[in-house]
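The aim of this short unit is practical: by the end, you should be able to scan a pair of folded records and say something sensible about each. We start with the first protein, listed as its amino acid sequence and then its structure tokens.
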Amino acid sequence: MNLKLVFASLLGLVLLSACERPPMQSTQREPRGAGLQQVDNPRLLAANKAALPAVPDLPPPGSNDGPKAKDIYQNVKVLGDLSVGEFTRHMLAITAWVSPEQGCTYCHVANLADDSLYTKVVARRMIEMNRSLNVDWSKHVGATGVTCYTCHRGNPVPANIWFAPVTPKNNYARPGMGDDAGQNKAEPSIALASLPYDPFTPYLSGSEPIRVNTTTALPTGNLASIKQTEHTYSLMNHFSKSLGVNCTYCHNTQSFLSWNDKRVTAYHGIRMARDVNNAYIEPLTKAFPANRLGPTGDVAKANCSTCHQGVNKPLGGLAMAKDWPGLMTTAMQTPAAAAAPAAAAPAAVAAPAVVAAAPATAPQALKEVVYFPVNSALLKGDEVQKIDKLLAALNAQPDSAATISGYHSASGKLSANQELAKQRAFKIRDALVKAGVAANRITLDKPQQTEANIKGEDPFARRVEVTVK
């Protein structure tokens, strides 16, 4: 036998081993010419579907009538508005979803009111987070919603989490060549690439700008450096791998600047991940024991893979949350009442004869107007001190809430103006949350338009108004 032919055949097999054999299938999701289509391997789709975990078999929703859990049990700080029966059903579900092997003792000691186990402290906050995801982030999770099982799937610690990495002092390739600049590593890596291996800290914990496309021909109009662009590409590779999709699932390859419904959903998902990490997970760092922290002392955080785990819809799009009213809203109601049409609602009843006396002096609303530099979402100078005033007002009035409204000019491109106003509002929201204000005490209003500028750049067109009351 010709050795060259044998060698060529073996080489061909090696080269083709990284390829997927046909046939593939292509699904066009947008009108022709939009360049938005999903290319899938039917065999892999079938394998992924078969690999989805079986959902624990649990009792169906019951009545929320009867005594409430908060009135019967001690130290109930979440789910207390559920009836005792529904409260117990939710507790059984959370055990089955998170700690099926460890059981109730994973979070509880003999005295169920005791908070000595860190797992109970964390679980309580995660229930609040679950509610927030279903109520405040419906633009990403939709009607499907999420439950504890979406991420945990029978594991006390979700399978896909991330910590801030340790940057080596010596280059991966050769000692003495300096640090690795956060990339060019075999492990960890994003999608087996030499791209930066930590796109999560700047984008899913921090709020660094992600977009790198310029609207003008290069080299003018650059929005980002090559290093920042590589970080963005690393994040995009993470999205693709986490959802099991290609770039055209969200992007029009003819124009990466254009938007569509999937890209909008992803936009809200990025901000949802930031909210999860900054408002709920990172503030719990001190509650965790040292062995549960990362190499730099940070707590485990979430990214897209935490929920999606390789498919574009977590758990294949299974809508579990609808059966768990305690995780779907912060104001409990019976399943029957939730499903009833508005016209069927009972008539209002008269106020009770005895009403609690109002405080002698009602708390005064505080309004701060924060101004930003031209074309910037950075807080500078005296404007930073206004955050301290807002924080002081929120801390002094525990029952108060903040409403944030961003404004923009009527001149120029509307979409760009709205985006900048939104980023400025997010900047203030993130600063308050980082300082300890609960995310559910902050409401973001839709960006508002001011009158068109007449003489130069009007500072009022680049303001954000924050009201605390």
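Turning to the second protein, read its sequence before its tokens, just as you did above.
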Amino acid sequence: MSPSIDLGSMRCFILLTQDLHFGRAAKRLNMTQPTLSQQIRKLEANLGVQLFARSTRSVELTPAGATFLPLAQEALIKLEEAVLLSKLAAGNLSAGGELLKISAIEPAAHTLLPRVLARFRKRFPDTRLEVSIVDSSELLRAMDRGESHVGFMRRPTNANLLQFRPLYSDRLLAVIPKSSPLANRAELRLTDFVGHRVFTLNRFEISCFRSVYDKAVAAGIELDTSLHASSTAAAITLATAGLGITFLPEWIEKVIGSEVVLRAVEDLTEELSIGISWRTDSPVPGVLPFVEYAELVSRQR
């Protein structure tokens, strides 16, 4: 008999293969670690095979899990898209030949946005797409003036007519010059950075960067005040030049060079969230289908 498998268990399995860490995967799935463990055990019981080899220090895919993964990903993608399209059809929501204006901040442009555009265009080939990569303040102004229909952005504050749906979060990683003795360390805690040249990104209007600063100071790290970076690109440049270590969201792995390495820090749990916004009064029919596709693709990230 064919095993009985539900979408929730499949999604849990696929996301756990990305993190190979029950705690981090459970947080991304917005569930407790015991609940995630229960979902994985349920899937393994239904399949009759062990998908993960677990120990107190590591989680690894078994040969059976590695074999199951690509076909499970393909099946989940098709099933979730079928569910989405049926809901859009039931609500008489569809995209046509209209122009859809999309704005995004740089992190989304390097991660989620290309995948959303590809999937949406494949399903709605007649929709014309105009894409702009802008900073947060410019994106908000464009949304407010109706010059952009949807925006990939951080959660806005005091955004009158905007709806916002969170999509994914990037954890913060240490950006370490290869010349640093910390570059080869497999495990790191904030106290390991004491005595090293460290600077933080000066974007304190974003709560997670304020938290990183506070945690670094509390850990006894003497921050290098001679280095000032007000943008992610500037911080990467300083680290690439070998001038110091900093902490940035993991999306930068798409753009960094070989002069630095990225390392997780065990007690640095801050994350930077990205979501999608749209105007509630938008008359463009492709807006809501695009938003739904963005959420669909973000779940399969």
